[in-house]
Amino acid sequence: MDTLKESLAPKTFNKISHLAVLVWFVIGAIFLGIFTEVENTESRFDFRCGGAETENTDLVRGDCFQQYEEQYNKYGVPIYGFVTINFFLIALVCAIFSQIVRKTVDELSPSTRNGDRESQSRHREKQKSTGKQLFIAYCCQLSTRLVLGVLFMILQTQLLYPLRFPYKFDCYLTSGTNQPRNLSDAAQNSTQFHKCNNQRAEKKTFWMYAVLAVNGIYVAGILIETIYILSRARVETKFMKNSEFLKIHLNPNHDKSYQEPQKQEGRIQVVVMQPRVHDNLPTQPGLHPEPQRQDDVAQSQPREREHRPIQVEIHVHPQKQDDVIPPHPREQEHRPTKMESYQEPQRQNDVVPLPPRDQIGSHQEPQQPEGRSEHDIISPVQREPEQLQNSNLQLFIAETKKIIKENTQHLFELQPPFLGNPGEQTAVKYFTLDQIYTNLVVVPNRATYDFTANREEQLKVYPRPRTESQLKSLEDLLNDKSKKVLIVGRPGIGKTFCCTKLLRNWACKEVSEIHFDPAFLIKFRRFNSDNHLSLRELLVQSEHFPSDHLDDEVWKYILQHPESVLILFDGFDEFNHNANIIQWPASSPKSIEQKVPLQSLYYWLVTGKLLKNALILTTTRPTALSSIKRLPFDKTCEILGFTTEQIKEYVSRFCGDDKQAGERLWRHISSNMNLLSLCYIPVNSFIMCSSLFEILQFESSASATLPSELTTLYMIAVTVFYLKHTKEFRDNESTREHLDYNNLPPEVEEKFEKLGKVAFEGIKKGKLILGGNEVRGMEDSALFHRLPDCRSDALKREPQFCFIHLTMQEFFAARHLANNVSETELRNFVTKNSENGKWQLVIQFLAGLMNDKDELPSEIITDLLPVETEEEERYDDDEQTGNEEEWKVTCWPTKDKRDLAVTLCKCVNESKKMEIIVQRKLQQINFNCVNFIASHLTAVECSSLINVIKNIEQISHLDLMDNNMDSLGCLEIAKLLIYWKCRLSWLNLAENQLTDEAVKHLANAITNNNCQLRSLNLSENNITDTGAQHLAEAITNNNCQLRSLNLSENNITDTGAQHLAEAITNNKCQLHTLSLSFNYITVTGAQHLAEAITDSCQLRSLNLSKNNITDTGAQYLADAITKNNFQLRTLNLSQNNITDTGVQHLAHAITSNNCQLHTLNLSYNNITDTGAQHLADAITNNDCQLHTLDLLGNNITDTGAQHLADAITNNNCQLRSLNLSYNNMTKVGKRSGSLSFILTANEIVKY
C-alpha cells in the first residue's frame, strides 16, 4: 500500500480523481479474485448434458465443454487475464503520469518554499510563466485512459467474449469421433444431440456485466472531466498555465495559506506589533509628527518597503452590526482608544508599508498573546489600517455607511411603473434592493454574438447559460491585480444596480470580500457642466456623502492610503464631455488641490497620477468605449444580464410570499420563448413582472388569465424601457398617462419612426448586426446595443450595433409596416412572407398594431386561414370487447399547413376583430378533428389555438401529441373542456412533458358536468403516483364520462396502481379501457388491480405490458379471471418477467367457465416449450373463449410450436390469431409435419 501511495502522489490529482484511481485499484483486485476463482474451478463437471449413456458421461461432458469453450471463447483468452490487463494497464498510465509531473507539482506547491523567500518567489513566478506542461500531461493521461477504457469495452463485447454466457447449450457430436459438426448435418444418423447446462454461466455473465459497467462509468467520468477542462481552457487561456491549473483543478487548496480567513461579524480590535526597524526611523509612540504638505503627497513614493515590515494582528469580538454606534465627538476626546499608543498619520514617505501577503500569511507567524487562539489572527488582507486610530475617520465611515443603507433601501429605479393616485387601491409592489436584487452574468472582456440563421437559436443567444468563465464574486472583479476595472453593459442591464449593491454590501457588512475603507459613488450625469473642481471637491459631491465638507484627517488618510479607497464612476456614456478624454494631454497634476475639469481628474485617477493604487471601477454603455480606449484598465468585463435560471429567481423574488402568483408568472414567461428571451435584460424582467402582476391582482389570482397578446406587453415594455433609459426622459417622473403607447411625445414618435425603418430593412436584408452608417444619428438610442468593433482590415475598425433584443427589432419592423405601407402592399407582403420564419413574429405584431388602424382591414391577416382538410385514421378501444377499433376523421389543418395555421392563430389572438372573422370561417369548413401533432406548440400558442376553436361545436377530436404543453397549456385545455359550447370527446396529449400539476387541471375539468370527454391519452409524459391519484378521484365522480384512459410510459408505481384499482371498483366509474404499460408496476400493483377487476368493475381492457410483473403477479391475475364477476375481455402482459409457471396459472384460468377473456398477449416474456404446452392444452378446452394469443419473442422451439399446432386443429379451439414470431423455431421444424401444414394453410398463425 505504501508503494501504491508513493506511485500515485495525491497532489498530482484532484481529490475526486485520486479517490477514483484508488477505487479502480480496489475494484480491479476484487474482480481478479472473482474471475480467478471462476476460471480455475469451472470444468467439464460443471456441465450437465442429457442423452449420454452412463459410461460415456464424462466423455460427452468433456467434448461438449470443449465445444462450449471454442464457441464462446474462441481466442482462448482467460477472463482473469483480460481483467488483469484491463485494470493494470490503466492504473499504470495513472502511475506514470503521477511520477512525471510530481516534480513540477512540488516546485509549484507552497510547502517547498523554504529558505530564501525572494529567490524562491522568483522561481515560482518563473514556473508560472514557463508553459503548460502540467495541463498537457494531464490531458494526455486522460485521453490515454479514455482510449484504453473504450478499447477494453469493445474487446469484451465485440471480439473476445459474448454479451451473455448461455446457461443452455445444444451440443452436436458425431458418433465415433466425438467431434462437433455443423447444424446442417444434425439431421444425419451419425449425429448425436445433447442438451447441456453450464452451471456457472449466470455467474460469469453477471460479473462480466459488472466489468463492463465499471468500464462504462469510468469512461463516462473521464469524458466529462475531459470536456470540462478543454472547454474551460478554450474560454480561459490562463487556466492552462501550470500554477493556475494546479490551483484551480488539481489542488484548489494548495495555496490555502494565502486565503482569507473565515468572515466573522463583530467589532475589530487592531494591535500593531513593530519588529525591529532601522535606527534612523522614529519609533516613539507618543510623538505626533508634522503632517506632510499636500503638494508633496502626489509626488511621494514609499521607500525601503523590503526592510520595514509590520505585523498586524486583528482580534474579533462578536457584536451585532446594529450595535456599532459612532461616538459623539466630545465623548471621543475622553474615551480611551483601543491602541496602546496613538500616532498621527505619517508623511507618505514615512508610511511603513506592509510586506507581501505571502510573507505575513505563510512564514511570519506572529507570536500569539496568551489566551488567544490562532483563529483570532486574521490576515492583513482584511485589516483596517489605522482608521481605528483615527476617531474622525471612524466617524466618517460610520456616517457614510448609515447614509448608504438609508438611501439604497428604496431606490427610485424600483418604483412601480403603474402608480395610482393616492388613496386608491393599487396592486403595485414596492421593493427594497435586497429583496429584488438578483446576481447577473458578468464575463471577462467583451462578449460576442453569433447570430445563426435559425430564429429559435437567435433568441437563445441573449440569455447566456452559466459558464465557467463567468466572474463569481467581488474577488474576481476587484483584487490586488485589478485596481482599474471597466464594466460594460447595454441599457437596462444592471450596471448602476451593480455599483449600488456593491456599496450597500460594504455598508451592511463588517467584513467584506474585498476590503476598502472610504467608498465613493460618482455619477457622471451630475457633472455635465464645464466647472473645474479639485479631487477633494469631487469626492464631497459624490452620492451618499455624509456632509458638505471632507474632514482633514479623513483627507490625509485617503492620500496616505489610496490602496484602501474605492471610487465608483457610474455612467461614463452619460457624460457630455467624454470625447474630450481622448484629446486630453497626458500631463500630471501640479498639486493635489489643483482644480481641473472632471475628465482630467478621471484621467489622472485611472492612470494612477492621482491616488495611485486606488480601486477605480467605471461603468459605461458600449457606445462610449471609443472615448476611453486608450485608458490603461487592468480588466474589462461585460454584464450580459440574466440566465434563464436567474430570470426564474427574479420572478420568485418579485412575487415574494405570493408563491401562487410567482409560479403563474414564471410559467407564463417561460412558456413563451420571445418573452423569456427578452427578460434577460433585468429592467425588462421588472417591466414584465410589474405588468403581469398587476393583471393578476386586478382580477382574482386563481382565475385570472394572463394576456397572451404579445403586442400589448411589448407596447408597455418598449415605452417604459425607452422613456426610463433615454437621456431626455429618464429623470422625469412617469405617470400612467406618460406610459401610454398611443400618446407618445412627438419627438419620441419621430425617433420610433426612424427605428422602425432601420429594423425593417435589417430583417429584410437578413442583418441582425448593423453598421455605423445604418444607425447614424441614433447611436445613443437606448434600444441599440453597441457590439465590439469589426475589423475590415488590419488598421481599420468599423462600429457594429444590434437591437437590444431580436423581438424589439421585430416589433419596430411591424410598426413600420403598420404606419407606412399601403393596404395593397401590406396584403402582398403578408401573403408572400406568412410562412417565412423570420417574418412570422413581425406579422403577429402587425396584427396587434392593426387594431387601431381603421384604414387597414382585418382580412389582410384572416385571408391566410388554410381551408384544406384531410382524412386520417384514429384508433380507440371498443367499449364492449376492449379491442382497438379504427375509424376515420376529417382533420384540420393539413400537415403542410400546420405552421401557417399556428401563425394565424397567434395573429388572431392579438385582435378580437380577427378572432370573430376566423371563427366564422372555420364553422363553414367540414371537419371534426383539430390536428396539431408535432407542431412545437407551447402553452401560449395553445392558448391562442383554444381561443380560436372554442366556439366551433363540430370539433369532437383534438390531437396535440408531441408538443410542449406543460401545466400551463393543460390549464388552457381544461378551460376548453368545461366551456359550454365544447363537444370534445377525444383528446390526445401524449408526449407533452406533462407533470402531476398538469394532470390536476385535467382531472378537475373531467368532473365538470359540461365536459363530454370519453377518451384521454396521457402516455409518454412525466406523471407519477400523485397524478394517478388525481385521475383516480376524478373517474369516480358522477359527472365523469371517461371510458378510455391511457397512462402508458409514465412514472407510475404500485401506489398509483392502487389508487386506480380503488377507483375502478367504484360503481360510479365508467372506465372500460385502462393502459398502464411501460411503468414501474410490480407484483403488488398487479395484486391491487387483480382484486379490483373482480369487484363489480366495468373494465374490459387492461394493459400492463412492460412492467415488472412476475409469476406471482400472473397468479393474482389468473385467480381474478376465474371469478364470476370478471368481465375483462383483453389482457396484455407482454414484456414482463413471466415464465412457464405464470403461464401455467393463466392457462388454467382461461379454461374456467367464468373466464370471458378473448385476447391474451404474453409476448417477450420467458416462456419455453413447457409454457406453450400448457397453453395448447388450455385452448382445446371447450370452456376457453380465447380468440387472440400473442407469444411473440419468447423461447419456444419446434416442440412447443408443434403442441400449439396440434391444439389449433382441435374442434374445441376458438383461436383466430396466433403470433409465434421471433421464437427459437428452426427452419427444419417449420417444414416438418402438421406444423408445416398449419403454417401454410392457416393465416391465423404468424411466425
TrEMBL record:
SUPFAM superfamilies: P-loop containing nucleoside triphosphate hydrolases (SSF52540), RNI-like (SSF52047)
Record flagged with keyword Transmembrane helix: yes
Domain NACHT stretches: 483-624
Keyword Transferase: no
Gene Ontology molecular function terms on file: ATP binding
Keywords: ATP-binding, Leucine-rich repeat, Membrane, Nucleotide-binding, Repeat, Transmembrane, Transmembrane helix
The organism's place on the tree of life at top rank: Eukaryota
Protein name per UniProt: Protein NLRC3
Organism: Stylophora pistillata
